[in-house]
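pasting for ref
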Amino acid sequence: AFNKSNKTYLEKWFDDILIKHDLYSQYNIKYNHSVYPYFLDFAFIDLKLDVEVDGKFHYTQEQNIEHDKKRNEYLIDNGWKIFRISIDEVNKNANEIENEFLDYLQKFNETSLNRFYAILE
């Protein structure tokens, strides 16, 4: 786990899931992991899985949407899978998103699809 003091609400929410399900002991997870020129919110190093927890500014401002699309493309080209979660989804149904992620992780393999919310698809 990490120092929670400077984390967003969403990052704390996701970190709590990782702790609750003991995922830190099962996977090599790095917070704010650098894959130049980007930083990954939660990188599952061995799986090359990037979990991004996105606040509203990621999908309400055009330049941020474009940035994230380029970022997704770059990471995918470099062998990463991406699982993006938006604050709106968490606010609507946090349990459903948690279960969807746990299910995704459990079945994860090289044919797993990336998961984006609508605006970034």
